Amino acid sequence: MGNSTEKIRMKGTVLIIDDEKQLRGLLKRIIELEDYAVTEVGDLKSAWKILENQVIQVVLSDVKLPDGNGVEFTQKFKEKYPQLEIIVMTAYGTIQDGIKAMKNGAFDYLVKGDDNEKILPMLSLAMDKVQNQPLTVQNTHQGFEKVLGKSKQIKEVISLALKVAKTNTTVLLTGETGTGKEVFANAIHQESIRASKNFVAVNCATFSREILESELFGHKAGSFTGATKDKKGLFEEADGGTIFLDEIGEMSLDLQAKLLRVLETGTFMKVGDTKLIKVDVRIISATNRDLSQEVNEGHFRSDLFYRLSVFQIALPPLRERKTDIEVLARFFTKEFSKKFNIAIADLQQGFLEKLENYDWKGNIRELKNVIERTIILNENGQLTIDSLPIAIQFPSENVASQINSFDLQTIEKQHIQKVLKHTKGNKTETARLLNIGLTTLYRKIEEYGIN
Predict the structure, then answer these.
(1) pLDDT of 369
(2) How far apart are CA 426 and CA 374, in angstroms?
(3) CA neighbours within 13 Å on the CB side: how many for 398?
(4) Burial class of residue 43, CB neighbours in 10 A (0-12, 13-18, 19+)
(5) I need a labelling partner for 376 at 20 to 30 A (CA). Which of 18, 178, 355, 388 fits?
(6) Is residue 188 exposed (0-12), middle (13-18) or buried (19+ Cβ within 10 Å)?
(7) What predicted TM-score, i.e. pTM, was given to this entire model?
(8) How many of the other CB atoms lie within 10 Å of CB of 424?
(9) CA separation for the pair 331, 296 (Å, rounded)
(10) For residue 74, how many C-alpha atoms fall within 13 Å in the half-sphere facing its CB?
(11) What are phi and psi of 7, to 5 degrees?
């Protein structure tokens, strides 16, 4: 697959199938500018070889190909790779081909000639759908050794989790965003008698009500538009194991009723079916909301809340476990220095003090992102204080007065220049690392006169 490190940092992987070499080459250049990893082939035989040997997320295919038809290919493609998405390109006179392709499971179709403006937004939507699919985590055989920290707070939480792990009790994990709830849920599963079975995780906030129901419980062919065949739900995938329902507070009231039935009877029905399916699944759920308040306001069923919260574990925010910041910072430094092939010297005390004095509203996830950016901006293998975001360098509200001879604009300009240098001018990747919008980045480049 070529440069694997580069691929990891791409937005996603795309396969273009078109027998017009010049056209597919043009499409490849356009899509690569948006930071996707692109492979291009001229026929279906070559496409199948790519799919068997590479991780492809979205396929962009012409209808008329030398060795087959893109519409027919769509159905076969979806049968073998149901998690992937395909966009079909049709000529003006063959729009019906695009419609038929969608009936066969295509994400959407493009009419050639209109693709210049529509292709990138459509590709982005298809990629979002692929990457937001529920994740089935295979057994890692790692329990709480993945939970990093030495603080009293984290040790107490791990002790609680270890006690409940050996049972089949439902668990509700609460805590702010970024505190590591999925890592905890997976660790509980790995320490349980269900460890040899699947751990299935799904974020309830990612999907619409209809799609979430289909993902959780499956559906029968013909139960709704686009349901061309029976689909196995995640509860069936997790049979004998554990299902982790993240952001449970976002689930609609009618789906809450269906979930309650699973908890009470171990049974459910697929969408469009009348047959009961029985499963043996342990449910671990998580939320950053106050579910008792949601119950009082009528947004969450009280009976479901009581069933889910038999055993509650509150994960502490990072600002309440300051002694763990160094442990986590060293772990992420090692992880990203290996990923980017950058040798980093030992972390300096002043650098660590800045990390420990920051409030970390985004918790572990925010710390991880900061370490990633800091390693990219390193100076000769040193993680220096001035490579940290301004808010961490100067946590006081009166930032400007703390900076002395350096004004904010100068520091911001230097920071943007460093990131642009690291990404070799890739503005999409630069915007991602800076955690700003692409439009904002272009505006600042123009404002500061950056080449």
Answers:
(1) 87
(2) 18
(3) 3
(4) middle
(5) 178
(6) buried
(7) 0.61
(8) 8
(9) 41
(10) 26
(11) -65, -40
